[in-house]
Amino acid sequence: MTPEASSHKVLVGGRRIAYDEVTPVDPAGTVLFLTGLGGTRVAWRAHLPVFGRRYRALSLDHRDSGDSDPVEADYTTADQADDAAGLLQALGAAPAHIVGLSMGGFVALNLAVRHPSLVRSLTLVATSAGGASHVPPDPAGLESLRPDFTLRPAERALTTFRLITAPGWMDAHPELAARMAANAEAQPLSPAGYARQFRSTRTHDVTGQLAQVQVPTLVLHGDADPLVRYENGQHLARHIPGARLLTYPGTGHLPQLERFTDFNRDVLAFLATT
Q1: Which keywords belong to this entry (predicted)?
Q2: Rounded to an integer, what distance in angstroms lies between the CA atom of residue 274 and that of residue 233?
Q3: Domains of the chain, each with CATH number or no CATH
Q4: Where are the beta strands (DSSP E) in 23-174?
């Protein structure tokens, strides 16, 4: 039986970083899940028990979000990568398989470049190398980056998710949409916190360092992603040595939810080869 997820905090660089964990009796390794812009560790709560049957499965709240300590000064995706490195070191959990979604993929790439000894593999989900290579969002993706903070967190989240998932997907999955809305109510980012996190994404650029990534890498992308366009995933797969590109047709920016069963199966199969 897989244990229930437990929540903890660890001190990293003088700040507390919150994380969830599911660990079996004899784990085959560690998987660290990194969430995207505006999200918290609860975004991976349904995945932890699945991966936790075989691996020590962790998800963290980036600094200034969820239950991690707030900050006032701006920071970068490289700073967030250093936080993830500090967490892995503090927990004795390295080298780890890193699964990063969108902004979490930015952090994962920085982690692989800055702390290669801590990374066993990369799964890069709906993400980008940033910099001059980045293909910008389409109009719906751009609109999703301007959340309306006059709305309740649940309503704001549903509005955003409708913009970035495949057309019709939200209406076809009302129970899952309700769970996503409840997660948003539990740990909403403040307008100032969201603004700081958004500015951190603008610092991301590992375009010139992709050849340095020397771990097994799976690039997983939906070809209907309006926010981090499919071309960004193609670029990663072409420029990271040995990377494999897995395309989900007709899938938007949240393949881990839009293709939940396929995502879990495909990522677990990849991890088993590394």
Answers
A1: Hydrolase
A2: 21
A3: 6-137+190-272 (3.40.50.1820)
A4: 30-34, 56-60, 96-101, 119-125
Residue that is written with structure tokens 């980056």 in the block: 145
Q: What does the pLDDT read at residue 35? A: 96
Distance CA 36, CA 33 (A): 10
Note the pLDDT tens digit of each residue in 110-134.
Answer: 999 999 999 999 999 999 999 999 9
Residue type, 96: A
- Pair 192, 72: CB distance under 8 Å: no
Given a contact cutoff of 8 angstroms between Cβ atoms, the answer to whether 27 and 54 are in contact is yes
From the number of C-beta atoms within 10 Å of its C-beta (0-12, 13-18, 19+), residue 176 rates as middle
- In the structure, what pLDDT confidence band is assigned to residue 3 with cuts at 50, 70 and 90? low
Kindly list the strands in the beta sheet with 30-34, ordered across the sheet, starting from the edge strand earlier in the chain.
Answer: 6-12, 15-22, 56-60, 30-34, 96-101, 119-125, 217-222, 244-248
